[in-house]
Fold these 3 entries.
Entry 1:
Amino acid sequence: DVLQNALINSPGGSVFDQAIRPKDQGKTFVKKFQPIAHKLLWGLTGNHEARTEKVADINPLTFVCKDLCVPYFDQPVYTDINWRGHTFRVFSQHGTSGAGTPGGRVNSAMRPVGFTEFTNFYIMGHVNDVFANPNIRICRERIYEEKNGKKVLKEIRLVERLQYIIIAPSFETYHGTYAARAALTPFATGDVSCRLNADGSYEVTE
């Protein structure tokens, strides 16, 4: 979720817990992120923005992305990042899990692994938790050699490659919110960084 966007029918009294009114949240986000808009790859909507879409057929994130000139998506993004001759694959989803345990949340984040090819980073938000762990995938690697000016397949190797399962944490506060009043577990906050290296290696840091 990019915007808190709490409405009158949102959980608890959260409509009054917001530091910024819903109509001003998008403008505030644009102002803060305008200096680095060229670094934003896409905007992916979540259930918080969908609160307005459900009642008025308007998703406020579309206006934010338009103002920042950032591609907007209303479903998971599966993309390649090509850099210095290397391809890094990213599957990014908002997530739909209502699981109350860390294991259930990780299972939700891993669901796309079952229907996609090798992917470097699987990223999910939504559950206000944090998780970053490598998962080994056995892949076939084709080795070529030059013969008479042509690339010819020499051999196929089985290699172990890491793909990271990531749950991105939250930037929400806790005390004074409906979550604290309901004695829900405090949210994990901060960020997870996916690092791409010029030699084709990659890593994740929390």
Entry 2:
Amino acid sequence: GQRPALRFYDSSAGSPTSLVQKAAADGASLVIGPLQKQAVDQLASASALPIAVLPLHQASSTRTAPANFFQLALSPEDEAASVAKAAWDEGHRTALMLYPEGNWGNRLSRAFRQEWKALGGKMAATQSYDPAAGDFSGTVSNLSESASGADFVFLVATAKLARQIWPQIRHKIGTDVPVF
């Protein structure tokens, strides 16, 4: 029933640690932010924080952060690993993977492969595609040639690209193979 009072602090106006201390002195009980990875890393390496901090990014370091430091990050790599776990939990064991060329596609395909391998899964084939291409039939056709034994497809794509590629996957690979 009661809304909390919100205060906004300009993150360019000082170090992240000093801004958290200022917010605490101003009566705050929680800091939400920062977004920039460098600032998140600085807070994660602090010896202590006076109030709870929830940055909206993940710290680079794996060392133990202060007790009041909580992380919320929607990392694409975490999503790819989650897809691998979900497919494994559904009983799938052999994957096909279709991902876009470029840094984003490489990061997600690498994260999926690492998690899939750790779970004991097999890769029947992987295929990258040019996201700027208007026709993906050749790419999907190449992937389908190695589809024997695969029991699902991991498709890395934006919503727009997925809508373009989906019918071609269904046509070349079939409707009985689930697509994650």
Entry 3:
Amino acid sequence: DSILNQSFQDFEVLLIDDGSNDKSGSICDEYAAKDNRVRVFHQENRGSALARQMGFEQAKGKYIVAIDSDDWVDETYLKDMFNIMENENCDIVMSAFWFNQDNNDIYRENQPLCDDVITWQKNFLDHRCHAGLWNKMFRKDILISGKVIVPKYSYYEDMVISISYLEQCKKLCHNLRASYHYRYTDTSLTNSADEEKRVTRLDEMIDNMTQLYHSLSKSTQSILKGYIATRINDLKWETLIGYPNSYFMHKDTYQRFSPLKFPYRRVTGLTTFCYFLLSHGITLPYKYMIKYKEHQHINRLCKNS
């Protein structure tokens, strides 16, 4: 509804029903029946990356924005982005946004340090800016040029698409007016609490980021390799903290792209020593540390009961 209520009216809406098993597909069809700007595509479930690729290919317009199905936009969103794109002759516009959690909106400036390609790529990788497709306007001709990487897996596909798209850009623009509302939920695709799913997501992310790295020019590779390795290791570390035993079950995953280096500054005392030994391949103290933590957890549960 927020999309159809835009002050800028010359646009089409492409709804990609990616094999949903609820009423989403029929709801999409209902909107298409009510508004001729809406086009619906039904396909077997192939993941968000390939669903977006379908949208890129089927779009008729000069520019493309991607809006996630659980977010919403203010009525000036398309107008603001379109005007900047046209007036500044940009290849991409990235917008500030509202981060919405528990119905509270927090303004995120989302502005890179400088408006050049390498800085934007670095700032996507170092957490300064959000690499999501949903707060950007793209040129369709670049998106479908065959030079933009659309990865196989859905996890971190935004990062891969955005950074590889930037490789084809000359003029980058930023919109400080926040008209996009990004809704954060604990139950989203990226926030599963299941250990196997988290490790699978990590493995898929490494695949996607490795594909991205190999798609870059040699000069860009030399600049960004450390940033890519750090971003991968951030997710390895996050997964390891939540699921310590996963290191022993999936050691090959943790050593892919770049060996996992433990940031000792985050831990102290005996734990630091255990991580130091683990980073050098000595795992026995680490196993004892995990058992000790499990024992503490069981004791707390017994006391609480």
